[in-house]
Write a structure and sequence with these properties.
Blueprint (H helix, E strand, L loop, with lengths): L5 E11 L2 E6 L16 E8 L2 E8 L9 E6 L5 H8 L6 E4 L17 E7 L3 H14 L4 E8 L8 H10 L4 E7 L15 H8 L10 E6 L1 H13 L7 E5 L19 E7 L2 E7 L6 H8 L16 E11 L7 H5 L2 E3 L3 E11 L9
Parallel strand pairs: 7-8, 7-10, 8-9, 10-11, 12-16
Antiparallel strand pairs: 1-2, 1-6, 2-5, 3-4, 3-6, 12-13, 14-15, 14-16
Bound molecules: FE2/S2 (inorganic) cluster.
């Protein structure tokens, strides 16, 4: 199914020296379409130096707010994040898709539970939305945020986190852990690694009474936290993880129709089928699909957002990376076309079948 972008004006607010908050100034008629579940993300699109560049960013605002915002931190050599933090200004417009993604939490007013979020850097964005919405909707629940950054000046949304503490002083606690600033209490300095999580679990948090853990940050932090929580006896269904969208994605070559050993890719989107020759050793299926059908959906091109998901109808493919599809989705034949290459001959896929949505 093709994705639809809406062009909307934005308000841009500096958060740190290298991060901005971007609020969509949504027209009234789009507000319902942009209602989100805390933890979901937006795909933003901009033409940068003549290129169609798209990235996914998690929504940081409460699901109860009328406004909807994302936080973007500049990544070295990151095309979109550099544009967003250095060129985009209040009053400019940006193209944006309606919220997507399965990561997060659906708060329930009758629930009485304890939640812990572990975030690093811009991993705070979905976590801030989840915690704010949960504290607002579940009056008997408690939330703890463990937030890792390099220095106090690099903490994104510090004002918003402090405001949340002031709104819910008895039900929300924050633990800042800074890797490049000494602290008189060693627990609060360094990186969020296995030893730190174990130390927190033996002092500030009763790991087994936590109803849900939300992990958001770079791959190594998320994997370390998953393993450490498993070692502490936390069941995996209580641990929910989201990865950063890394902008430093390898450059993908243009499809080369003259290469040896080409196979045929047949793809259907919006009920219409197209055919293109594909080099199994060349770029991913997505790049070939886009060369004949410009409406093919994609965002991160890093195997993380599932925007490019399609179902294999015939043939076999291999995936380079998959951080987005569940085992059930893979078993059902779904693939991330930005990571997919044909194996053993021709392949037929469709973007028109849904079932499970990936993270
Ligand atoms: S475009 Fe994000 S997983 Fe393929």
């Amino acid at each position: 199914m093709a994705v639809e972008f809406h062009t909307v004006p934005v308000t841009v607010k500096p958060l740190t020296v290298d991060a901005v908050g971007i609020t969509l100034d949504l027209p009234h008629e789009l507000r319902e379409e942009f209602r989100h579940r805390p933890g979901q993300h937006l795909v933003l699109r901009a033409m940068i130096d003549g290129e169609d560049v798209r990235r996914s960013y998690s929504i940081c605002t409460s699901a109860n707010d009328d406004s909807i915002s994302v936080g973007i931190k500049r990544i070295p050599d990151g095309v979109f994040s550099t544009y967003a933090t250095q060129q985009l200004a209040s009053g400019d417009t940006i193209d944006v898709m309606t919220p997507i993604g399965e990561f997060g939490h659906s708060p329930d007013p009758v629930t009485h539970a304890s939640y812990v979020a572990l975030a690093a850097g811009s991993g705070i964005t979905p976590v801030l939305s989840i915690l704010t919405t949960t504290l607002e909707v579940e009056p008997a629940s408690r939330c703890t945020l463990i937030y890792g950054n390099r220095t106090s000046s690099s903490i994104m949304f510090l004002e918003e986190i402090e405001a949340l503490k002031n709104r819910f002083p008895d039900r929300f606690q924050v633990v800042h852990i800074l890797s490049r600033e000494p602290h008189e209490i060693p627990l609060f300095e360094g990186r969020i690694d296995a030893a730190k999580i174990q130390a927190l679990a033996s002092s500030l948090i009763d790991a087994n009474s936590v109803a849900a853990w939300f992990l958001c940050g770079p791959l190594d932090m998320v994997e370390t936290a998953q393993h450490t929580l498993a070692d502490l006896g936390v069941p995996s269904h209580r641990v929910h993880a989201e990865l950063f969208f890394d902008e430093r994605i390898e450059t993908i070559p243009e499809p080369d129709a003259t290469a040896e050993g080409m196979v045929t890719l047949e793809l259907t989107i919006d009920g219409r089928t197209s055919v293109v020759d594909v080099d199994p050793e060349g770029p991913a299926i997505l790049d070939y699909a886009r060369s004949v059908r410009s409406e093919v959906p994609f965002a991160c091109k890093g195997g993380m957002c599932a925007t490019c998901k399609a179902k294999v109808i015939e043939g076999n493919v291999r995936l380079e990376k998959n951080y987005a599809l569940t085992a059930e989705e893979v078993d059902a034949g779904f693939v991330l076309t930005c990571q997919a290459h044909p194996v053993d001959g021709d392949v037929t896929i469709t973007y028109d079948v849904h079932g499970g949505v990936g993270r």
